[in-house]
Amino acid sequence: MGDYLSKMAYYRRYNRSSSWSSYRSYEVRGLYNDGLSCCVNALLQSFSATTELLDILNKWNPSNGIEQSNIPLQLRNTLLSVRDPSHPAPHKAFLNCLYHHAIRRYTQQDADEIFHMILNLSLKQMPDHELAQEIRSVYQIEVETQVTCIDCTFIHRVPNSYFSLPLVIHERENTLESCIKSFFKKQNLEVSEKFFCDRCEKKQSCSYEQKLVSLPQILCVHLKRFRNDRGLTKKLDSKVTFPETLNMSVFAAGQSENAASDSPQADYSLFAVIVHIGHAMFGHYTAFIKQTQDQMWYYANDSRVNQATWKDVQNTYKGRETAYLLLYRKKSLDLSG
């Protein structure tokens, strides 16, 4: 308990003394691999680069009695510790906290699943509900599912949301823009998938589509490279090109009539790429991170960090080392200005 209290006192002093820019000016730091923690390590690199998240967590003053298994507490402490060069193991407590929540050492993890688990637990375990809502708003993609009856044309509308945009990719070459357009494309459901129409009061043939309502500050894109093939998980190494700047026009056709028309239509700037290396059942995760202060790319492979280039990032379009999660920041909020 004494060690815990001393740590809490340190972080409170850090919060009081830190200016707006102090924890944004940091070096991408390597994180040692503890029990196949490469997946969490890569995600922590992306969370560390998402200074909007630390802004919110830094508003919170947790009580001394809060449990060590609290995810938002340990995430905040880790993101601050990463910025302290004197801290020898900035993510150790966070890993122990995750291991307490059903994640096991020495097991293969899926980066998108762990990304969702960290965010969902952060929302659930954050006692300040206003801050929890702020965290949600950083990542939440709001859509409206529309199911249209073919017979009476009545549209059944259901609100939905994502923390990452799940994009199906094909075995042929793909572009991020084409995958996004496919996600919002209307499709006719099979006869076996008839939908119960409230107006017709019976099951009818229908069409299905998702309409975009709003996009968040941080847009996470999930390239769905893993799929079930006759009971076996298969990884698609198909080529998926993606831009360093994502133009908002790609979402125009998929916008709902309920979309906020007065919101700024800013483009998105890529700042993190979570990379999967290897096969479906045996792989490794690394991350490319774009620094806000020098606008340079860095490659983090657990404890090793090297300067990289945009060409290096483009090498993850296809092959053995492929992009799996893409994180874009809305340019109007881009810390680079």
Summarize the structure.
The protein has 337 residues and is α+β, with helices and mostly antiparallel strands.
Main traits of this protein?
337 residues, alpha+beta, eight-stranded mixed beta sheet, four-stranded antiparallel beta sheet, 18 strands, 28% helix, 29% strand, globular, disordered N terminus
Structural class: alpha+beta
Number of helices: 9
Largest sheet: 8 strands, mixed
| Poorly predicted runs | 1-6, 8-14, 16-21, 333-337
What does this 3D model show about the protein?
The chain is 28% helix and 29% strand. The protein has helices spanning 2-17, 38-49, 51-57, 71-81, 92-100, 111-125, 129-139, 176-183, 310-314; strands spanning 141-149, 155-162, 165-168, 174-175, 187-188, 195-197, 202-204, 206-214, 218-224, 226-229, 232-235, 240-241, 245-246, 268-278, 283-290, 297-301, 304-308, 321-330. The strands form five sheets. Strands 3, 9, 13, 14, 15, 16, 17 and 18 form an eight-stranded mixed β-sheet that branches. The longest helix is centred in the N-terminal third of the chain and has 16 residues, at 2-17. The radius of gyration is 21 Å and the shape is globular. The model is unreliable at 1-6, 8-14, 16-21 and 333-337 (pLDDT under 50).
